[in-house]
Amino acid sequence: MKIWQALEQAYPDTEVWETHTPHFEVRNIHFYVNKCGFQIVEFFNPAHPMEHVPDFPDAELFFRFEKQMSK
User: Fold this and answer.
1) Using CA atoms, how far apart are residues 67 and 38, in angstroms rounded to an integer?
2) Which of residues 64 and 56 earns the better pLDDT score?
3) N or C end of the chain: smaller count of CB under 10 Å?
4) Domain count of the fold of the chain
């Protein structure tokens, strides 16, 4: 958590942070949502693939998170 806080402090002009993590990484999901304040904004799956990633495997499940920073 301290590393994430240091990143936010190092880049105070960032308006929105974005990251992705695979569905099976439950600890990552918990960390980003419950510890760092991210929101899950998209769920990539075979019916909704990552179109901007041409080699995205159809069987993969990923979450996209965003964190809106207040000014």
Assistant:
1) 4
2) 64
3) C
4) 1
